[in-house]
Amino acid sequence: MSLCEQLQKNLKQLNDPNTYNMWLRTLKLEEKDDAINITTTSKFSVTMIKDKFSSQISSILEKITGKQYKLKFKWENVPQENLMEEINDQESQITVKKDESKSENLGFFEINPKNDLKLSPKFTFESFVVGKNNQLASAAANAVVNSLGSSYNPLFIYGKTGLGKTHLMQAIGHAVQEQDKKKKVIYLPCEEFMNLMIEAIQKSSMQKFRLRFRKVDILMIDDIQFLAKKEQTQEEFFNTFNALYNEHKQIVLTSDSPPKDLTNLQERLVSRFEWGLVTDIQPPSYETRISILRKKCELSHLKVNNEVIDFLAEHFKDNVRQMEGALNRVYTYAKFLNKPLSVELASENLKDLIKSDNTKRITVEEILQKVGQYYSVTMLQLQGPKRLKNYAFPRQVAMYISRNLTDLSLPEIGSAFGGRDHTTVIHACKKISEEMGKNNKLRNEIDIISQLIITA
């Protein structure tokens, strides 16, 4: 394995997938005497990598070779691979590959609770830390286990990403199975429900599909908001919901928003989501974050001192999943370097995730202003409905930069651009990313605009 391959392997282990794909995947190395020349795809990437990852790269190279190198960075005009995943929002365009190893008659529509119970062994009530932010949701989940179909049916849990909705839902599944292994439990993400339905239509197996989902004791669907705009899937889920509810079977749903705020869903479906109990999970308090990290260390047998736990709890306030991922990352990093895990080491390793107090939070308004100045258009024109090329292309550039320089979700970016749909943002990012791969002038323009925004 070459030195570059070894470096890439370690960078991939030590960084989250989005960070690795955006900044590190395309790095190339050239060893020259006591220096390492590191080549990346743009001038802007050089600035970001030098600032955020040079210490990490130096440590890895020293660990691999036993030598200390001087790092030199440069950039070259090479096609940039498109790192955006194409998300297809139309039901009719979703392609499902056939599994030739499965029986054509039964497919995967044979009722088999064990096959449908795709639960993580980590997501149990015992490992779920209860705080003021999730007390009601946790109590309701436990009540559901003890009285399926009667208390809180449906149970609808909502909250932002990474706060524990999936954990709590899967904990219900584990507890129901522990009480009675004969209970038929199905847990799956909404997108998978949709994909299974489309395959059933393709195979003319809708009767088996309905049998699978309507002959269960508890149906749990994660991220139900993804039913939006899927009219045929909504109709099928409406009928499934009614069939289960009328038989007093339990339904549990999660979403990023309460039912009343869900858009592009049938009103009769939304009203049914409110029949039982609607409860939310909020970001945890500092004390609860400390408890979550300590529980994680206990369950994973990690020895982490209180100073590091305090540091992580202080810097990761809104996303428990990201906080736990940061703990795993710094622990692995310290173990890799064979050094004790300290606040200094954690701070160095998490530079790309932690915004310092002195770091300005970039807003879409600032991006619109700089993009507008560069292309001689106004903010109103960028946010407006007109699709003239003079407006549309700068608008797509601004969306692409917003996706890369802010923490906003796709729907939030779309909203900032005159209330556009998140699929418009996906299309814009994909188009600009592809164009940058073959247009050096555009890549340089975006580097310049991005640096103007960051240094403003």
Brief overview:
Helix content is 53%, strand content 9%.
Describe the structure.
With 456 residues, this protein is an alpha/beta fold. It has four domains: 3-75, DnaA, N-terminal domain (GMP Synthetase, Chain A, domain 3, 2-Layer Sandwich), CATH 3.30.300; 99-280, 3-Layer(aba) Sandwich (Rossmann fold); 286-349, Helicase, Ruva Protein, domain 3 (Orthogonal Bundle); 364-455, Chromosomal Replication Initiator Protein Dnaa, Chain: A. It has helices at residues 3-14, 17-24, 43-52, 54-65, 113-116, 135-146, 165-179, 190-202, 206-214, 231-246, 267-273, 286-300, 306-315, 320-337, 343-349, 364-375, 379-383, 389-405, 410-416, 422-436, 440-455, and strands at residues 28-32, 35-40, 70-75, 155-158, 185-189, 218-222, 250-255, 277-280. It has a five-stranded parallel beta sheet, with helices on both faces. α18 packs across α20 (422-436). It is globular. It starts with a helix and ends with a helix.
How many distinct helices?
A: 21
List segments where confidence is low: pLDDT < 50 over at least 5 consecutive residues. Answer: 78-116
Please give the CATH class of the largest domain: Alpha Beta
Q: Over all CA atoms, what is the radius of gyration?
A: 25 Å
For this entry, what is the oligomeric state of its chains? single chain
Apparent shape = globular
Tell me the CATH topology of the largest domain.
Rossmann fold
* Biggest beta-sheet profile: 5 strands, parallel
Overall tally of domains:
4
Distance between the termini: 43 Å
The name of the CATH superfamily of the largest domain reads: P-loop containing nucleotide triphosphate hydrolases
Q: Which structural class should the secondary elements be placed in?
A: alpha/beta
Number of strands: 8
Helix fraction bin: 40-55%
What is the succession of H and E elements?
A: HHEEHHEHHEHEHHEHEHEHHHHHHHHHH
